[in-house]
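Inverse folding, one chain.
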């Protein structure tokens, strides 16, 4: 995501005569960031990478006999997804060479700083877990080191999944500042998407026992995801009312709920074959991308708040 844009979104005008801050109450204080549709892909890929890692890690640590084989496939896939996401993120800075500037300081009270460091730290154990998983496939087994990398990656992986929503909901942009459940939704969505990805990988690799368990978990996560999504919609009800007619709200909301929840749920309940699983995940990713696209673009479509 365009991490520097959020810093640039707080633009204060000169102080009124006498230096009183009270004059800001009736003056615009935000500048819309120059973000485009690629940011929705950044947000989605972030959730896919972190969610797949966390789903594989938790599954493997809880039941290694069932999930170790599919987890060893998942870590390299998660690494590829993270690398693609990082490429989008760095190039969205405008000057890619500036990325390392964000690592010169660490501010615990800054979601952007914490998120950047979480992503950077997360990439290290993920790379180790992916490499050691590939080595295990050719007979070079370093199992203890691989498991250690998986455990170390859990906390920064969670932080990397959560920070984008927290970052957006704690700034002054119209709409975003009201989206208090955006961080919760993106984190839960990442776990759900990660479970869906792991389900596809288990079906592709013929891990029938893992597939059966993950199918049940995916169904539960799909249903539970309605809660943070509903709370996020409730946060943004005033914003939606300003931007869309009631008919448009029902149409878009119905599309998101159908594509992101009802269709994936129906396909997964209907049949556990690979074709149905793959179809449900495609619809899930489509609905998830639409949600991210709409919310990333809110400041661009909102009238300037004064």
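Residues assigned per position:
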């Amino acid at each position: 995501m365009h991490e520097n844009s959020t810093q640039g979104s707080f633009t204060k005008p000169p102080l009124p005569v006498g230096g009183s801050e009270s004059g800001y109450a009736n003056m615009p204080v935000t500048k819309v960031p120059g973000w485009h549709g690629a940011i929705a892909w950044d947000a989605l890929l972030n959730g896919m990478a972190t969610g797949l890692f966390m789903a594989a890690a938790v599954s493997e640590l809880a039941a290694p006999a069932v999930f170790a084989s599919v987890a060893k496939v998942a870590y390299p896939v998660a690494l590829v997804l993270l690398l693609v996401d990082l490429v989008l993120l760095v190039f969205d800075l405008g000057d890619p060479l500036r990325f390392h500037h964000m690592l010169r300081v660490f501010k615990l009270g800054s979601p952007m700083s914490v998120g950047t460091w979480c992503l950077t730290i997360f990439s290290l154990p993920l790379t180790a877990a992916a490499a050691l998983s590939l080595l295990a496939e050719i007979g070079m087994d370093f199992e203890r080191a691989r498991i250690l990398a998986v455990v170390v990656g859990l906390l920064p992986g969670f932080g990397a999944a959560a920070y984008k929503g927290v970052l957006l909901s704690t700034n002054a942009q119209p709409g975003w500042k009201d989206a208090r459940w955006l961080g919760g939704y993106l984190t839960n969505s990442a776990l759900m998407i990660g479970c869906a990805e792991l389900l596809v990988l288990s079906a592709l690799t013929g891990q029938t026992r893992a597939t059966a368990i993950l199918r049940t978990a995916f169904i539960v996560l799909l249903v539970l995801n309605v809660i943070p999504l509903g709370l996020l919609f409730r946060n943004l009800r005033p914003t939606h009312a300003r931007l869309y007619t009631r008919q448009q709200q029902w149409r878009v909301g119905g599309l998101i709920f159908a594509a992101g929840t009802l269709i994936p749920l129906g396909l997964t309940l209907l049949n556990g074959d690979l074709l149905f699983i793959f179809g449900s995940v495609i619809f899930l990713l489509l609905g998830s991308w639409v949600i991210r696209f709409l919310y990333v673009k809110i400041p661009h479509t909102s009238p300037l708040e004064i």
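The mean pLDDT is 80. The two ends are 27 Å apart (CA to CA).
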